[in-house]
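ok so heres the complex, two chains, lmk if somethin looks off
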Amino acid sequence: MARIIGGLTSSHIPAVGAAYAKKQFEDPYWKPFFEGYPPVHKWLAEQKPDVAVVFYNDHGLNFFLDKMPTFAIGAAFEYENQDEGWGIPALGKFKGYPELSWQIIDGVVADGFDVCSCQEMAVDHGFSVPVQLFWGDQTKNPIKTIPICVNTVQHPVPTPMRCYRFGQAIGRAIAAFPGNEKVVILGTGGMSHQLDGKRAGFINKKFDLMCMEKIVDHPEELAEISTADLIQEAGAQGLEFILWLAMRGCLTGKVKRLHQNYHIPISNTAAGTLLLENAA
Amino acid sequence: MSTHAHELHELPDTVIFDGREAMKGYPLNKMCYSFNRADAREDFRRDSEAYMTRFGLTEQQKAAVRARNVAQLIEVGGNIYYLAKLAGIFGLGVQDLGAQQTGMTVEAFKDMLKKQGE
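and the predicted structre for the whole thing:
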């Protein structure tokens, strides 16, 4: 059976895509951010996962407000990172794994989550930045990916608890997949930030650090927060933390934190990186 | 942890982009979404008035675009994720938008971000 070996989190700030392209790894502004990744690279090199399931939100590349699914699951052979309109380099194609995608879709619908399945899906920085940060260049030996898009753009958005439960359903579906694959789950986005309104620039270090602590052993308690309270504490776009809760829901084994990094600011955002091991 | 201490539409200085905003801002956001394409950005640069008319923007929406004013663009139903694409055409990043909305200089805004990490 397929096995979920761990969960990773990463902010997916578009400016990171630009900095990565310019290789600004040692630049004083970027160094405290990029140095959060080598310990994860080491773990990935040892564990050699076959598949990455990536929770992200689309920021207006694949989905527009004409049709806005709450939960959309990629079921394509490949996904293209295309031009988003404001200048970060498009990274081209990412490899899919539709067989496992359909396993997940079948499983979660049977479990009460009526998702939108996507056999064609462009992926934006929300997906491509974290995959690049963890696995680098995807033109050679690409990791198989399954993008799972959660609406954080237009309210009503799914509640934090609903996202956590969605993750649990995905975890069960993956565990029932008849293969030997090792799977890692990515929760992307966050942490606290707000781009719009007079509250633009809002960051909440205390709340973020509490979340990074609690998500390890007490995710259910964390998931009880209301959408309004989450926006109050983490900012209008810090709401993306629901993607981390979806990731955490997938991890049903013994969870241990192996690495953590937190840095303020990258662009307008607090950036958080976590490596969680999910032992059987 | 306390739950439901706040109501979504009573949060200070935050516009919740819900169905009401989505209805109001649809033509503006649809235009911004089109800017994913390079040829669309070029068309807008060449004749922004004709481009706005083609998407059916209201007079208030057109005025907000002309003014390059983020607060106004949000007021007329713009969603920040789509507006970012319009801002990109004007060469404005998220720090510029933040500075404009908070009435700070860009340097002061960046400094404020940095201080929150200390």
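quick notes: The interface with chain B takes residues 15, 59-61, 64-66, 82-87, 153-156, 194-201, 203, 205, 221-222, 224-229, 231-232, 236-237, 263-265, 267-268, 270 of chain A (CB under 8 Å). thats all i got rn
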